[in-house]
Design a protein that fits this description.
- This protein has 258 residues and is of the alpha/beta class.
- The chain has a single domain, classed as 3-Layer(aba) Sandwich (Rossmann fold).
- Helix content is 42%, strand content 15%.
- It has helices spanning 16-27, 39-49, 63-77, 100-121, 138-141, 147-167, 197-204, 216-227, 253-256, and strands spanning 7-10, 31-36, 53-57, 82-85, 130-134, 173-179, 182-183, 214-215, 238-241.
- The strands form two sheets. A seven-stranded parallel sheet has the order 3-2-1-4-5-6-9, sandwiched between helices. A two-stranded parallel sheet has the order 7-8.
- Helix 2 links the parallel strand 2 and strand 3 (53-57).
- The termini are far apart.
């Protein structure tokens, strides 16, 4: 039980990787605050997670909501041992057909809100605490139409190294988990509405060396490891969970069949 007596914040913890991480933290003894924008989904997640979960409805694009979230955590937990800044959104931002508002909305959620969340949480954190950020292999794939999302994920990994440098003197570690394609609801939202996870995975699997998407639980396991004392000597590091997509791309079935 690596997190007995410890408190954790997981932003975007009502589904996908965030929910899987919250479930794992709780299974290992933690009390966990999760955030989400949709109250119904948040309430359902808290019900599934049980009595050691605290649900906080919050739009993290709003600095006032971030301050309110931290106040609720302080009142409920008193302090924080772990912050997993997981919340994020995607959306198409192709050159020639993207408004400033659409581009900036993704930056606001995926980058600015991450910075403000970690900054706001710091007064509740002390030596031995840990911050984990959620990045993405999209930072380096050059996927057409993904400029804003890819830029934010590149920004997250750069920002994590700065956080690590600034917080090492306080004994707080900062690391990043880098998912590739993962079985989460993100594949069925927004511009992809109507698509299925199975269908999308089937279309992309031939380009992944392991020939499948990662499970949310596999990404969560990496994030939980980085947050734990098992990683006590690790800061400013990354764990990539992408089935080999960026490390060994030529191992993908599409190339093996050629």
């Amino acid at each position: 039980m690596r997190f007995n007596g410890k408190t954790v914040l997981v932003t975007g913890g009502n589904s996908g990787i965030g929910f899987a991480a919250a479930k794992r933290f709780i299974a290992e003894g933690a009390r966990v605050a999760i955030t989400g924008r949709d109250k119904a989904k948040l309430d359902q997640a808290v019900a599934e997670l049980g009595e050691n979960a605290l649900g906080i409805q919050a739009d993290l694009d709003d600095p006032v909501a971030i301050d309110s979230m931290i106040k609720q955590i302080q009142e409920s937990f008193g302090s924080l041992n772990v912050v997993f800044a997981n919340a994020g959104i995607s959306g198409p931002t192709p050159l020639g057909n993207t408004t400033a508002a659409a581009f900036e909305a993704i930056l606001r959620t995926n980058l600015t809100a991450v910075f403000l969340t970690v900054q706001a949480a710091l007064p509740l954190m002390s030596e031995g605490a840990s911050v984990v950020l959620n990045g993405s292999v999209m930072r380096e794939l050059g996927s057409p139409g993904s400029a804003a999302y890819s830029a934010t994920k590149a920004g997250v990994t750069g920002m994590a190294k700065v956080f690590a440098s600034e917080l090492v003197q306080r004994g707080i570690r900062v690391n990043t988990v880098i998912p590739g394609g993962t079985r989460t609801p993100i594949w069925t939202r927004g511009a992809r509405e109507g698509a299925t996870i199975d269908g999308t995975e089937g279309a992309l699997a031939s380009r992944i060396p392991m020939a499948r998407f990662a499970l949310a639980e596999e990404v969560a396991a990496a994030a939980v490891f980085l947050a734990s004392d098992d990683a006590s000597g690790i800061t400013a590091a990354e764990i990539v969970v992408d089935g080999g997509s960026i490390g060994a791309p030529w191992g993908a079935p599409i190339f093996r069949a050629a």
